Amino acid sequence: GLFVTDYFTRTPRKLSPFRSFASIELFHFHIPEDTVIAVWNLITFKEQGGTFGDQCPDRSITVYFRSGAPSVINPLHTHFPRDTAVPGSFAVTLTWTLPNRTTGVFNVTSPLPGDWFLAAHLPKDEGKISVKGLYEECQYLFQPQLIVQRLVNIAVLYPGHLTEQSMAPHNRSCLYKVFVPSYTSQVLVEVLRCHGAEGCPLWLRVRAKAPPLHNSTALDCREHAPCQLVLDLPFWQHWYYVLVEKHPGVLGTVSFQVTVQLTDCSRPSLARPPFLPSSASMNMPHSFGSAGRLALGDSLPTGPNGTKHLVSITSPSGERCWPIRPTLRNELDTFSVHFYIFFGPNVSVPPDRPAVFVINLLPVLDSGGVLNLELRLNVSSLCGENVTVFGCLNHEVPLTSGDNASVTCETEHLAGFLLSVNTTAILSRLRIPYPQTGSWYLSLRSLCGTQHGFEPCTNVTAEVYLRAYLSPCINDCGMYGQCKLLRTNNYLYAACECKAGWNGWGCTDNAEAFSYGFQLLSTLLLCLSNVMFVPPVAIAVRSHYLLEAAVYIFTMFFSTFYHACDQPGIVVFCIMEYDVLQFCDFLGSLMSVWVTVIAMARLQPVVKQASAGRGCVLYLLGAMLLSMALQMDRHGLWNLLGPSLFALGIMAIAWTARTIRRRHCYPPTWKRWAFYLCPGAMIAAAAVLLYAFVETEENYFYIHSIWHLLIAGSVGFLLPPRAKPSGHLGPLPRRKGCGYQLCVNEQEELGLVDPAVASINSICTS
Question: What stretches pass through the bilayer (predicted)?
Answer without folding.
Answer: 513-533, 545-564, 580-600, 612-630, 636-657, 673-694, 700-719
